[in-house]
Amino acid sequence: MAYLQTEILGHTQKVCRLYKSALKHVFEYAPNRAAYRYAAVCVRQKFEENRHLTDALKVQTLIEDTKEELFQKQHSHPFRYATSPGGSAYGRELKSPDWVLDLWSPDEKAQYPEYFARREEMKKEYTVYWEKKFGNKAEELHHHH
Amino acid sequence: MTVDKYLYQKISFFLINFMLVIGFTGVFLSLSGVSIFIEWFLGGSSMNFSLIFLFDSISCFFLSVVLCISANVVWYSKSYMATDPNANRFILLVVGFITSMAILIISPNILSILLGWDGLGLISYGLVIYYPSSKSSSAGMITVLSNRVGDVCILLSIGWFMSVGDFNFSIWALLSNTDFSIWVSFLVMLAAMTKSAQIPFSAWLPAAMAAPTPVSALVHSSTLVTAGVYLLIRFSFILGESCSAFLMFISIMTMFMSGVVAIFEYDFKKIIALSTLSQLGMMMFAISLGLFEVAFFHLLTHALFKALLFLCAGILIHGVGNTQDIRSFGSLSLNFPLVTVCMNLANLSLCGVPFLAGFYSKDLIVELACQYSWGIFILLMMFVCLSLTVLYSVRLTYLSFVSAYGGGSLVSVCETDYSLLAPVVILSFTSLMSGPVLSWLSFSCPTLIFLPTFLKWGALFFVVSSVVIMVSLQRLVYFYMWGTVKKFSGLMWFLPWLTGQWLTLNTLKNADQFLKIYDQGWLEFYSSKGISMGANSMSLFSLKFQHNSLKIHFLVFLVWLFMCLIYIL
Question: Which residues cross the membrane (chain B) (predicted)?
Answer without folding.
Answer: 12-38, 50-75, 87-107, 113-131, 152-174, 180-205, 217-239, 245-264, 271-289, 295-317, 338-360, 372-394, 420-442, 454-476, 488-505, 550-568
